[in-house]
Design a protein that fits this description.
By secondary structure, the protein is an alpha+beta fold. The chain folds into two domains: 54 residues, no CATH class; 55 residues, no CATH class. Helix content is 23%, strand content 7%. A two-stranded antiparallel sheet has the order 1-2. The radius of gyration is 19 Å and the shape is extended.
Length: 119
Amino acid sequence: MSVWFVPYRKVGTRIIINLFDLHMDRKYWGDPDNFRPERFLESNGTVRKDEALLPFGQGKRSCLGESLARSNLFITFTSLLQNFALRLPEGVPRPSTEPEGGLTFTTKPFSIVMKPRNV
């Protein structure tokens, strides 16, 4: 039997989860640098709930705009994918998953070709 010891913390101590490291942890994701949508879906196609995925935080301090953000992202990306085929320019390597550091992490700039679909 393993025992987990929780050390004493003064009341009011803030504990901050490093979400970047959690979301890039090979223990949970295997190959976090590769985009594999199936890791987020159940076999019947519904979205899988995973305790290691916390893009909007958790608990009392979670993002108030989560439902608005999810709806907006769904509509935006669905519209993009319905109307355009997205590809990398020829001869250009895949974008890096390494973030640009700073106050917050951002992606490094990259180019993409958006070809209109014949709808």
